[in-house]
Amino acid sequence: MSPTLFDRELIVVTGKGGVGKSALAATLGTLLAERKRVLVLEVDPRENVHQLFGAPPSDGEFVGVGPRLHLQNLKPGQVFDQLIREKLRIPQLVKRVLKSPIYQQFTGGAPGLEEMAVLGHALRALRGLSPKAPQVDVVVLDAPATGHGVSLLAAPLLVGEVIQHGPIGGMTREVADLVADAERTGIVVVTLAEEMPATEAIELRAMLDQRLGRRPDLLVVNRLYPPAAGSAEDDPAAKLWRRRRRLNEHELERLGRAWPEPRAELPLLPLERGEELIARLTADLRRELGLGAAP
Ligand SMILES: Nc1ncnc2c1ncn2[C@@H]1O[C@H](COP(=O)(O)OP(=O)(O)O)[C@@H](O)[C@H]1O
Ligand SMILES: [Mg+2]
Question: What is the rounded average pLDDT for all residues in the chain?
């Protein structure tokens, strides 16, 4: 497995909703934070990531959850508002701009702009430009669901065609450079070994290639049924379990044919969303990636 994934500045975790993107982002963040300063950035109006760390909700703020680990739930609008505040500085003026219908229409409607704002925020955190942000070496971005995953990465190209000047133009160019550079930005796709999510993951891989000329760095197949252990042949629960497991194996085979890049497999664990789940997944992912023990 490419240890280089761990040298990136930005790691985008993407996949269909509900497959475990947030869990994986928290897991990767935990692994990375053993050596680096990490921000796990969640872009979802329904906050989840804090629960995985047993922390209070972020509500847009940075929350420290470990010695080198922070999380933040980001509202995309936040980013441009911050830019306006920094550029204008005069509170009265800032208020008027933020309230003006033109500004609101602009930030709410232009295609790709919200996604750009998210990436711009990540870049600013890496550069230490966000006033309240902790200094970090890597941002793990828990991206919105699949289609959005590609549109997120394609956004700088889209926006860059339209806005070339001013603070947003400058930020757009820098973000485009960041996400186009495979040595700086990693892409991790999460899926389940079930028909729909696996098909979407395979489509996502094709779209990344078509639209961005990028290959994903890692496929994570989450929530795999472990082989059922020695239950009675006619026990209905055991039967169901074995059927699930066979389905998983069938989809793993299909993914194997469509996906030449590295793959990690994580088991379905009998645990609620929380710290214990992340601790277990971190240990499992460490083993899957062939990493050594924690420092
Ligand atoms: N390997 C796993 N074993 C058990 N539960 C898991 C595992 N991975 C994720 N979950 C649970 O599945 C649900 C969906 O995961 P989540 O990370 O929130 O998905 P997403 O962010 O893709 O919508 C959560 O309740 C989470 O705790
Ligand atoms: Mg999520």
Answer: 89
What kind and span of H or E run contains 92? helix 91-99
Residue 219 and residue 288: Cα distance in Å, rounded?
11
> Residue 252 above 70 pLDDT?
yes
Confidence of residue 172 (pLDDT cuts 50, 70, 90): confident
Of 40, 8, 42, give the one whose Cα is nearest residue 217.
8
Is residue 147 scored above 70 in pLDDT? Answer: no
Q: Is 197 in the pocket of ligand 1 (CB under 6 A)?
A: no
Task: Identify the architecture of domain 3-288 in CATH.
Answer: 3-Layer(aba) Sandwich (3.40)
Q: Enumerate the domain spans of the chain.
A: 3-288
**20 CB under 6 A from ligand 1?**
yes
Look up residue 162 and give its two tokens.
């339209």
Cα 94 to Cα 84, 86, 103, 172, 287: the distances in Å are: 7, 9, 11, 22, 50
* Cβ contact 48:22 at 8 Å: yes
Atom of ligand 1 nearest to the CA of 44: 21
* Nearest CA, atom 12, ligand 1: 20
Q: Which ligand is nearest to the CA of 73?
A: 2
Distance 18 CA to ligand 2 centre (A): 7
- Backbone φ and ψ of 120, nearest 5°: -60, -40
Helices 195-212, 146-162: axis angle to 10 degrees equals 20
pLDDT per position as a tens digit, 225-237 = 988 766 677 788 8
pTM recorded for the entire structure = 0.91
Q: Which residue has the higher pLDDT, 76 or 48?
A: 48
